[in-house]
Write a structure and sequence with these properties.
Layout: H1 7-12, H2 15-23, H3 29-47, E1 50-53, H4 55-59, E2 75-80, H5 108-115, E3 118-124, E4 136-137, E5 141-142, E6 144-145, E7 148-152, H6 158-166, E8 171-176, H7 182-188, E9 191-192, E10 215-220, H8 223-233, H9 251-254, E11 269-270, E12 273-274, H10 277-282
Parallel strand pairs: 2-3
Antiparallel strand pairs: 1-3, 4-5, 6-7, 8-10, 9-10, 11-12
Helix pairs in contact: 3-6
Amino acid sequence: MTLPMNWDEWAQHDGTALAARIRNGELTAAELAAQAAAGVAKLNPALSGVVELFEDVISDPGRDGANPDGPFAGLPFLMKDLGPTMKGRLQEMGSLLMRGNRATADTFLTAQMRRAGLNLIGRTTTPEFGVCSSAENPAVYVTRNPWNTDYTTCGSSAGSAAMVAAGVVPIAHATDGGGSIRIPAGVNGNIGLKVSRGVFSIAPAASDLTGLVSIQGCHSRTVRDTAAFVDACRGGAPGEFMPYWTAPEPYTDLIRRDPPRLKIALSHEWGDYRAVPAFVQAL
């Protein structure tokens, strides 16, 4: 397939813009999936951010249920190899122990992503079980920062961060228990939001080993893509108990207006630990 865009044009689009072009008939979901796959082929040898691409849904975006009428209209999307499962696909969690672990069903959030029109085309790297701050296990893979491959992406949403920052995809799945969305977002220059508990479903079985503390989300390059992802994928499964308050308004509405004056609490001392003076000065 001839790719519809050159690299610069592709990397300048966010997911919202690409979805609009699909709806307008300018591009197809299959063309975008091929474009993303070409980006992986071009950059993954140096970055090692993608574990596996699913060739069947690259050639046929509707195969696993990506909804062409959803807000993302078949946009290619990479899944961190931890958290929501994909029916029939491997989920190895960055661990040799989990090699060959294959999911038997989609989790509810996976189904929400597909209904939103996201075409889940592959898996991205993570440190073992997401408990480390960078994906640097030579026995599995070493994920490198696209801005400078001598540096780390941090983690644990390492591969997703690298692929978004490099321009391979405009948005990718991420999770965050103790900074695993936010830290690599800062290190790679992406948008990384950890939403409150109760925004995204953890059904069934808490989605993964850390589902009660780890929040699902995404890495993107624009605030509107992150807002659209939250709005399209949020909500509990039927009967799921979610005793948390969440903003009733769509995020896509909230980002269109300035908030009132806010107070932000900061602590630069925690027991015997203190922030370095440069951080305190910046704050």
